[in-house]
């Protein structure tokens, strides 16, 4: 079993509520430091964030993914200029469901071009809205487009968040060449550990304290 420190080192401590204030983000950062997590993840409008010692991630095209690729690219570019070291972008899930993977690839590639390495690019595929074949195809497409991670969910979709089945399928598809981030509905220690066991290398959590409290 992972230690508390090891699990904390995999967590993106997340605040993406539309009603979040600057004070809420300051509290997020303070809690992240207290918990010893790896990163904080916020909406791009909340940048810059004073978070020395923590990785700062921002979302792009969130939460629907139904933004023009040029808008996603501009949002990612500005987020990096304002201090984000990582970008979590949402694909056009409808394009994936329709089998238009070239469109998905172009979307991801536009953001990758706007936020090149060493910025880490995580691609949110909204796995609960996809069937297995679509999950596999989108993960392959994300790798072809230059992503560093594939990520299960926004946590905002009515179809649900992360599942161990989706994480395992994603991890098998990318074969360690990309990271796998499980996010959405992970609220306790057992679920978090199950996601890691399934192949997750990063966890997106808003309730990080509750998850970490289950470990010594």
TrEMBL record:
Chain segments annotated as transmembrane: none
Residues the record marks as active site: 88, 151, 181
BP-aspect Gene Ontology terms: 2-deoxyribose 1-phosphate catabolic process; carbohydrate catabolic process; deoxyribonucleotide catabolic process
Keywords: Cytoplasm, Lyase, Schiff base
Gene Ontology MF term list: deoxyribose-phosphate aldolase activity
UniProt xrefs under CDD domains: DeoC
Catalytic activity, reaction form: 2-deoxy-D-ribose 5-phosphate = D-glyceraldehyde 3-phosphate + acetaldehyde
Keyword hit for Lyase: yes
UniProt keyword annotation of Nucleus present: no
GO CC entries: cytoplasm
HAMAP family for this protein: DeoC_type1
Family to which this protein belongs: Belongs to the DeoC/FbaB aldolase family. DeoC type 1 subfamily.
Function according to Swiss-Prot or TrEMBL: Catalyzes a reversible aldol reaction between acetaldehyde and D-glyceraldehyde 3-phosphate to generate 2-deoxy-D-ribose 5-phosphate.
Record's protein name: Deoxyribose-phosphate aldolase
Record lineage: Bacteria, Bacillati, Actinomycetota, Actinomycetes, Micrococcales
């Amino acid at each position: 079993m992972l230690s508390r420190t090891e699990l904390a080192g995999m967590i993106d401590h997340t605040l993406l509520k539309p009603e979040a204030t600057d004070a809420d983000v300051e509290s997020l950062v303070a809690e992240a430091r207290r918990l010893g997590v790896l990163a904080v993840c916020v909406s791009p409008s909340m940048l810059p964030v004073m978070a020395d010692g923590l990785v700062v991630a921002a979302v792009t095209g969130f939460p629907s993914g139904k933004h023009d690729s040029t808008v996603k690219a501009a949002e990612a570019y500005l987020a990096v200029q304002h201090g984000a070291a990582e970008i979590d972008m949402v694909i056009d899930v409808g394009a994936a469901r329709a089998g238009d993977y070239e469109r998905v690839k172009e979307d991801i590639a536009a953001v990758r071009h706007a936020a090149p390495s060493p910025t880490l690019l995580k691609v949110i595929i909204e796995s609960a809205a996809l069937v297995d074949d679509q999950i596999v195809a989108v993960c392959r497409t994300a790798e072809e487009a230059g992503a560093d991670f594939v990520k299960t969910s926004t946590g905002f979709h009515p179809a649900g968040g992360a599942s161990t089945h989706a994480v395992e399928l994603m991890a098998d598809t990318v074969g360690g060449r990309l990271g796998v981030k499980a996010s959405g509905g992970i609220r306790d220690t057992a679920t978090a550990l199950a996601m890691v066991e399934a192949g997750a290398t990063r966890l997106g959590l808003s309730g990080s304290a509750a998850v970490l409290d289950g470990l010594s």
